[in-house]
Amino acid sequence: MLLRQLEYLVALARERHFARAAAACYVSQPSLSAAIRRLEQDLDVPIVRRGRRRYEGLTPEGEVVLAWAHRMLAEQDALRQELSALRGGLTGTLRLGVVPTALPVASLLTTPFCERHPGAGVSLESLSSAEIRHGLAEFELDAAMTYLEDDSLRQVRRLPLYEERYVLLTPVDGPLADAGTARWSQAATLPLCLLSPRMRNRRIIDECFAADGAVAAPAIESDSVAGLYAHLPGGRWSSVISHAWLHMFGVPDGLRVVPLEGPANGPRVGLVVARSEPQSVLAEALLKVAREAGVRDALDELLRTYLGRSAAPRG
């Protein structure tokens, strides 16, 4: 049994199509199909369910083989990483999954990681919480930035990075622009642009509105932070944002930051890595960088800076 055969199986399970799996592995489809059949012969079990030569999923035995394939390939990667570290520097690619609302601050970890380990790279993916859980369990990710209060995250190590703090972005000539603070119920009366309800951040924000007896009815909803911010310049829309987004997007011209009354801190966002042996050397290196990065302090200082500008008299 060759590791290459296991790589082909993992690709086939991921792509669910022989031709796409072959393209992902840079081999011909007949070569990939023959390798899978040899794997079945070596193990003496059926692995792939085929219907008229089409992929129709894995057999129960195939699911067991796939789990072992993920584990064995992860051990191969860990071996290579450890040997490269012994030779004087990390190489390879750190696979990092990030929930969309944490993407604006991912550079606070990835940039110092690459500066400290110039021989290594980072593959960054924007993923949902469910996709992150799957990626960690199947050894497709080395680490992830996600909400730590996710009870479905199991067998992981957690490192808190920051707590989301929510503020109102509103036009400088709007009714709440000069307020020292605003209530969530007041924010709900404004023309709003918010993330879509399928986003975890939006569901958290809706809970904050509900706690103040209000329901937000945004005119515009977006499934990305960038899409939300694209609507804010021009002075028509207000939005409730996490203070972490200020790191990447700042405050658009013509808008002002107003603190919202309520809990001082929202849910925790942190770095998670799977509890597995052997540990990913790249993930361990990222954890070390994250412990020294001071993400929480950097974001809190950034928020204080923008709140100070908002409090300044209009020129």
Q: How would you describe this structure to a colleague?
A:
The chain has 315 residues and is of the alpha/beta class. The protein is built from 12 helices and 12 strands. A 5-stranded mixed β-sheet has the order 4-3-5-12-6, with helices on both faces. It has a 3-stranded antiparallel β-sheet with strand order 10-7-11. Strands 1-2 form a two-stranded antiparallel ribbon. Helix 1 crosses helix 2 (18-24) and helix 1 (3-15) crosses helix 3 (29-43). The N and C termini lie far apart (73 Å). The mean pLDDT is 88.
What would a concise description of this structure say?
The chain has helices spanning 3-15, 18-24, 29-43, 60-86, 107-116, 129-137, 184-187, 200-211, 225-230, 246-249, 281-293, 295-311; strands spanning 48-51, 54-58, 92-98, 120-126, 143-147, 156-163, 166-171, 193-195, 220-222, 239-242, 255-259, 268-274. The chain has 315 residues and is α/β, with parallel strands linked by helices. The strands form four sheets. A five-stranded mixed beta sheet has the order 4-3-5-12-6, sandwiched between helices.
Which key terms come to mind for this protein?
315 residues, 43% helix, 12 helices, 3-stranded antiparallel sheet
Spatial gap, N to C terminus: 73 Å
What portion of residues is helical? 40-55%
Low-confidence residue ranges: none
Number of helices: 12
Order of helices and strands: HHHEEHEHEHEEEHEHEHEHEEHH
Report the sheet with the most strands, covering strand number, pairing sense and barrel closure: 5 strands, mixed
Strand order of the largest sheet: 4-3-5-12-6
Rg over CA atoms, rounded to whole Å, is: 24 Å
Mean pLDDT: 88
Proportion in β-strands: 15-25%
